[in-house]
Every structure is written in C-alpha cells, then in structure tokens.
Amino acid sequence: MNYHVKDLDLADKGKLRIEWAGREMPVLKQIKERFEREKPLKGIRLGACLHVTTETANLMDVLKAGGAEVALCASNPLSTQDDVAAALVKHYEIPVFAIRGEDRDTYYQHIKAVLDMNPHITMDDGADLISTLHAEYPEKIENVIGGTEETTTGVIRLRAMAKEGALKYPVIAVNDALTKHLFDNRYGTGQSTIDGILRATNRLLAGSIFVVAGYGWCGKGVAMRAKGLGARVVVTEVDPLKAIEAVMDGYDVMPMDEAAEIGDFFCTLTGDINVIRKEHFLKMKDGAIVSNSGHFNVELDLDGLKEVSREVRRVRENVDEYTLVNRKKVYILAEGRLVNLAAAEGHPSAVMDMSFANQALCAEYLVKHGKELKNDVYKVPEHIDRSVAEMKLHAMGIKIDKLTPEQEKYLSSWEMGT
Questions:
Q1: 146 among annotated binding-site residues
Q2: What is the mean pLDDT of residues 55-76?
C-alpha cells in the first residue's frame, strides 16, 4: 500500500484517539452498521482531501465499510494529526498522504497521490482536490461520478467554477446542509476556535475586545463563545444584512480600520482574501493577537505584514511575534492557518458526527443518482438532511411531536383559513 505519513510508530496512540472520538459519533455508527450490510459503495474509488483528524478517521472507516476503496490527503498543512494518519495506514489499511507542517510542494504532491487512484468520487474541504484535478488531470474527469464539498470556502470556489462553466462534474455542497452549517460551523467553530486561541496564548478573554471579521455561521459561533467568556465583541462585515443581525445580537459593528485600533484579539472567518491588511496591522495596539479560522491563511495579508515588520520570531508554539516598523508588536497564531486545527484539535466529534454523516450519505446518493445530475453545485437532498437530524435526536434519546392528520391537512390547504 502506498502512503506517506510521519511515523507509523504513532499508530497505536492514534487508534485510541480515533476510538475515543467515535464514542461521540453515534450517527456515523448507525450508518456504518447499514453500510456493512448493504455495501452501497462497492467498487467505488473515493479520493478525499480533508483535515486528517480523529473525526475524519471515523468517516474513512465508514466509507470503507460501505465497500469503497478510499485514499486520503490533508486539506491544510497544519491540521494533520500525525498519530491519526499513522493509525489509518497501520490499523485501518487506508492509504494516507499527510504530514503535519508539510510544505506547499509536499501538500500538492499528496493531493496528486490521491488523484493517482483515479477516483469516481471526490470529497473535498476547500476544493483543492477538485481544482487540481480540473487544472492538471482533465483526462481523469471522465471517470468521476461526482463530488462533495465540506466547507464554505470550497463552496464559494466551486460556485465560481460552475458559473464560468468550468466545473466538469456535479458536486454536493455538504456545507449548505442545515445539519452541517447550523451546528458544525456555529457550535463547532465557535468552541474549537476559542480553544485554539487559548491553547496558543493562555491569555484571558474576559474584559478584552475581541474582533470577529465576518458574521456568517462560523463568525456567529466565535462571537457567541467570546462573549460568553466575558469579552466585548466587535464585528466587522461587508454585508449590510449580516451587519444588522450582529447589531441586533448585541455586538458593536464597525469597519476594520476602526476595529484595528481597539482590538485585543482578532479572528477572521470570511472565506475571502486580505481581510486584515498591513494598514490594519500598523494601527493595532502593541500586543494585539491575530488569528484566522477561515479555511485558508490568505485572510491575513502576511506578505504585507512582513513588509512593515522589522523582526519576526517564534515566542511560543503557534505564536509568531512581528515587531513592526512603529516598534509595536503583533502576534500571529498558527502562521495564519486554521487556529482551531493548528493550535487545538478541531471541532468536537459530537458535532462532526452530523457533518460527516452528510458526507457518507451524499457519497451513497452520488453512486445512485450522480449520472442524472448536471455539472453544477447542488444542495444536500432534504431527505438526507432530515434523516441525519432524526438519527442524531434518536441517539440523544430525544423524542419530538408528529403532525396529526388534521394538522397536515390544515398546512396543505388554502381553504380552511382562520
């Protein structure tokens, strides 16, 4: 079996951590039990570019149980958990190409190693697998049934491809499932981002000014958790609707130019480029702490920051100190990459349970219906979204009401009125 991981001796530790995460992923467990019986992915080669974490490992196990031939690479150079990568190779016999801290060339070599399997289905977190396939291996696309995309940044890229007619096969936007973004993005990102910032800095949030750039579901989650720890939260936005929502949720809203002067902590969650630029860094307080929890590190203009810096040094694990030309110091966490994965362990497994359940069920859906779909970006089918919610409630021991026949008739009628 071809693979590239840091050290197979880490595998036993990784296996224990995978099992620990699996205890909080009951929906995936239910899907695995059915997949083992039915083998809906038999004969399917599935190439995945995801964060190599304990939760992802449980998803890979489910896909393999469903009959798929699976290969996995990292969707971010700093998100790989090396013990998990080793365990997947040694104990689960799944080819993995991922090493924490890999450079850009190695990162893309790993993506190409997954594409060498000639996948029928691609599974992405950020769309690097799909974009590389389209740009460098167009001859392999004819074998692809479809793909899935996990995160907001990737969905934005894929919709741009579809709009230009560049997307050559259908992709399901798992990120847009209600059982994904309402929970994973909000509660998962909220908790894990704060976790990463605190692990990296050990600084007190209470009484500080915490600037959240972007008030999508991820930004809402981070703002909620920062406020809960006693920070005064400031939101920056470009969307007037989201800005109004942030105001009515009780946050201060202002442009980044103004927020830069008062913030103690900054976190970008927009999916866009250069959200914090060199002119913002120069306005920051001495000692400001800057992080990113959007998919790519491009949200921070690190090249611009270097241009206005006199010195850079690593002062703690995952903390780089930039001494600016104005002699103030600014601290960048996790090299500007996903702070929740680089400085912590990513989302809790209980919330990833629903996200990855969508991934597994959408892979099954593509096998059955992929050839019927056009080359476009699709929402997760509603019946899949609802079934994931139902399985999660069942696993939590929670029951809900059902509509009576009279109620169903009322809701489907225009004649009954008041």
A1: no
A2: 98
Query: 306 labelled as ligand-binding?
Result: no
185 annotated as a binding-site residue: yes
- How high is the pLDDT of residue 388? 97
Residue 55 Cα to chain centre, angstroms: 12
Tens of pLDDT, residues 317-373: 999 999 999 999 999 999 999 999 999 999 999 999 999 999 999 999 999 999 999
Ordered structural domains, the chain, with CATH: 8-180+347-395 (3.40.50.1480), 188-342 (3.40.50.720)
Using pLDDT thresholds of 50, 70 and 90, give the confidence band for residue 210. very high
- On whether 311 is known to bind a ligand per the annotation, the reply is no
Residue 118, marked binder? no
Q: Classify the phi-psi angles of 4: left when phi > 0, otherwise alpha if psi is within -120 to 50, otherwise beta.
A: beta
**219 assigned ligand-binding residue:** yes
User: Per the annotation, does 125 bind a ligand?
Assistant: yes
Q: Is 370 annotated as a binding residue?
A: no
Say yes or no to pLDDT of 234 above 80. yes
Contact 62, 70 (CB under 8 A): no
150 is in an annotated binding site: yes
> Sign (positive/negative) of CA torsion 390, 395, 401, 404?
positive
Per residue in 277-309, pLDDT (tens digit) is 999 999 999 999 999 999 889 999 999 999 999
Residue 404: partners with Cβ closer than 8 Å, 6 or more residues away:
none
Ligand-binding site membership of 153 (annotated) = yes
Q: Is 347 annotated as a binding residue?
A: yes
Distance (Å, whole) CA 266 – CA 300: 11
Distance set, CA 256 to CA 190, 220, 221 (Å): 21, 17, 19
Amino acid symbol at 397: G
Confirm or deny that 382 is annotated as ligand binding. Answer: no
Q: Is the whole-model pTM more than 0.70? A: yes
